[in-house]
């Protein structure tokens, strides 16, 4: 049975003034009518296809693992059909290449249990960052506040800042957002100040902490969202880079609000990305969430970049719909990607312990998803901590580069934490990098003690 969902009128208080006042594209709003049988369209200034020099497009791709998890060691040759190539080279639908949009709809059904007809829609973007930026424009007015899981993704801080949105940090730990902290912020919110309407979170392998929110925390956060009338902006690019067994995987917020059938759905705007599992350069991400918000995002796309790139969408669709892939093949592929990064995580964790942990120079929680370690450097003899000075000077001089934790804090305050990515380096480079970092910490300690 389909769940109840929040009515479209509910979102009037959540959409920004820009989203409400944006005029529809005079041309793009009429493009779907061109499919009317027998219609002769004089509408759009589409270039004539005979002017395009591309006549065919064929690529090779590694096949996903077999059902037993073993590599096939085989490449497949995939060609775009003449019709798909023609569609990819021409102006297309604002919300994405139709075959890819439909494939993503089915993915959300298979993975998150979300059916069509539940008040939600889906749009493709030029990576999830593109959709995130447009969602912020759609949801916030200057002077609004947003609740952000802290530490927070460094790439979202300037987006909120440029939108003149106050970022209210909600403390998080290895189990995700602290619901005690969130509850206290909401209950003690000044009566004369407009309350936040949106909570921003990266629940799997959070960037920068690598933390994955537990099921208990997710349920508590969702309950608070209902109590205080919040939308959850679920930015989840590391969902498919989860290191635990399938049975221990907590559901997404997008799935959780559907599975708890006592409440109407429609409080989650979910962002997915293919960057970590297919290719970062194809720039394909997709948003799923309340239809009025997706329409506002599409309205922004109409005026900003018209549509996501057709050719990369067509290539992605051709790969994912090919006989060896499909939704089952995609899931086998992402499981192999997660196994790859789990092995790299274990190498980094062991080296971190060997060079810094055992010497009392760092402390951390081992990530259960994502591409990052978040650890606090401990300089013996020094109270508190400021990793920025150490990382940007001593560590760099020792030949190792990482990100100081201050860049993940909206107010830019000092912190002893550091973010390190483990996705690219081999074991020898990991070992050498952490050995150099440990020496940089010892250099700082020697200066304190001198």
TrEMBL record:
Belongs to the class-I pyridoxal-phosphate-dependent aminotransferase family. It holds the Pfam family Aminotran_1_2. One of its GO terms (molecular function) is pyridoxal phosphate binding. It comes from Mycena chlorophos. Keywords: Aminotransferase, Pyridoxal phosphate, Transferase. Residues 89-437 form the Aminotransferase class I/classII large domain. PANTHER family: AMINOTRANSFERASE, KYNURENINE_ALPHA-AMINOADIPATE AMINOTRANSFERASE, MITOCHONDRIAL. This is PLP-dependent transferase. One of its GO terms (biological process) is alpha-amino acid metabolic process. InterPro entries: Aminotransferase_I/II_large, Class-I_PLP-dep_aminotransf, PyrdxlP-dep_Trfase, PyrdxlP-dep_Trfase_major. It comes from the Eukaryota. Its cofactor is pyridoxal 5'-phosphate.
